[in-house]
Each structure stands twice: as structure tokens, then as C-alpha cells.
């Protein structure tokens, strides 16, 4: 379905991240969330994430291009430039306001990993985030989302949905390390992303 400003779905899943590079784990979890919530997914590449400033290995436009290539063959997925086309600081709470402006009739769901849920209390204005969306949480190996592990944020439990999805241990850091080591990244990233990485000679050096 088209996401050019409006959607027929009452829900929209927002998936922000560095996508440096986007990998099969991102797509698998986005697909599971789309199926569980019966909603399209907006991939929102981060310009300069406040929790890891300056950590991006390649430019924002290269990451956006790789993300577009990764999601091109799934009609449920679309790229949104909410975080790329604005000045910093690039906080999630502000990005969600921009998404809500573009989709005023949609209920937003923010797709995050269990590790991010556990550390949600360290995010900028978590209450402001929860006021705008529900959290859709996918599992991450080594992070148990038991009540004692979650931050004491009012309304957090009531605004959280857990997505049934496989544990995936692929990470962008792992993909970059394999490239630097001269190892294959086949099946770690979509073929179009691998071709772009090779063409642009990305991640070959620290």
C-alpha cells in the first residue's frame, strides 16, 4: 500500500534506527511486526542518533539508500525521511511528532528491541514518546523483559506490545566486521544492499 502521506491502515509502525547497514534481522522483525499488527512499517533512518553521536560508519544518505534498497520488494515497507531532513538534536520524541503530522489519523507503534525497552528510561522524554505511540517490542538475545528489568515509567506496561518474532543475532556491527575481515555477508543483508556496499566500497576500513 502507498504511504505517500496517507494510509488506509488505522495503524502505522515506525521503525527508527541507524541501519548501518540494514540487515536481514531488521527485515524479519519488521515483517513480524507488520503481520502481528496488520500495519505498514515506516523505516526511518536516523541522521545522528543522540545515544551514539558520530558513531555512524557511512553517511546518512548512504544509509538511506541502503534502506531503500533493502525494503524495495515489500509493499508493506516504506522509507520516511523524518529524521534526515531536519536539524538536530535528533530525538525520537520529535521524530514521532513529524510522523504524526504526516499520518494524522493513524495510531503509531514504535518498533524497538527488548534491549531498548530495558534502557527506555535513559531516552529523551520517554513520557512524551508514550503519549504519542505504543511500543512494539521484538526479542533480543540476552535481554529478558521481566517486570524487574523494566524502568519505572508510568504507563510503560500499558503502552507496550510484545511481538512474536525469532531471536536474531545479526547486527550491523557484525556485518561491518565481516566486511573488514574479508568474509562473506551473503544472507546477512539483502542482495541489493550487498551489491551497493561492494560498489561503494563501504565498511572496508574502520
What does this structure look like?
The structure is a single chain. This protein has 206 residues and is an alpha/beta fold. Helices cover 32% and strands 15% of the residues. The chain has helices at 24-37, 60-71, 92-102, 114-118, 126-130, 172-180, 191-200; strands spanning 11-17, 41-45, 77-79, 107-113, 133-138, 160-162. The protein has a six-stranded parallel β-sheet with strand order 3-2-1-4-5-6, with helices on both faces. Strand 2 (41-45), helix 2 (60-71) and strand 3 form a beta-alpha-beta unit. Helix 2 runs antiparallel to helix 7 (191-200). The longest helix is centred in the first third of the chain and has 14 residues, at 24-37. The chain is globular and about 45 Å long. Residues 1-7 have low confidence and may be disordered.
Topology:
Layout: E1 11-17, H1 24-37, E2 41-45, H2 60-71, E3 77-79, H3 92-102, E4 107-113, H4 114-118, H5 126-130, E5 133-138, E6 160-162, H6 172-180, H7 191-200
Parallel strand pairs: 1-2, 1-4, 2-3, 4-5, 5-6
Name of the CATH class: Alpha Beta
- At CATH level 3, the topology is Rossmann fold
Query: How large is the count of helical segments?
Result: 7
Q: List the strand order in the largest sheet.
A: 3-2-1-4-5-6
Amino acid at each position: 500500500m502507498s504511504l505517500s502521506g496517507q494510509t488506509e491502515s488505522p495503524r502505522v509502525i515506525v521503525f527508527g534506527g541507524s541501519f548501518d547497514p540494514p540487515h536481514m534481522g531488521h527485515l524479519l522483525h519488521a515483517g513480524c511486526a507488520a503481520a502481528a499488527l496488520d500495519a505498514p512499517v515506516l523505516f526511518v533512518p536516523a541522521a545522528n542518533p543522540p545515544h551514539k553521536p558520530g558513531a555512524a560508519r557511512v553517511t546518512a544518505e548512504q544509509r538511506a539508500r541502503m534502506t531503500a534498497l533493502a525494503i524495495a520488494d515489500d509493499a508493506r515497507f516504506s522509507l520516511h525521511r523524518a529524521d534526515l531532513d531536519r536539524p538536530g538534536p535528533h530525538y525520537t520524541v520529535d521524530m514521532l511528532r513529524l510522523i504524526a503530522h504526516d499520518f494524522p489519523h493513524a495510531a503509531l507503534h514504535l518498533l524497538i528491541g527488548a534491549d531498548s525497552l530495558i534502557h527506555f528510561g535513559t531516552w529523551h522524554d520517554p513520557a512524551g514518546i508514550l503519549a504519542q505511540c505504543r511500543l512494539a517490542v521484538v526479542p533480543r538475545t540476552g535481554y529478558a523483559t521481566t517486570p524487574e528489568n523494566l524502568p519505572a515509567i508510568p504507563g510503560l506496561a500499558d503502552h507496550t506490545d510484545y511481538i512474536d518474532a525469532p531471536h536474531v543475532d545479526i547486527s550491523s556491527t557484525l556485518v561491518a566486521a565481516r566486511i573488514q575481515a574479508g568474509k562473506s555477508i551473503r544472507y546477512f543483508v539483502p542482495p541489493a544492499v550487498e551489491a551497493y556496499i561492494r560498489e561503494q566500497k563501504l565498511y572496508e576500513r574502520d
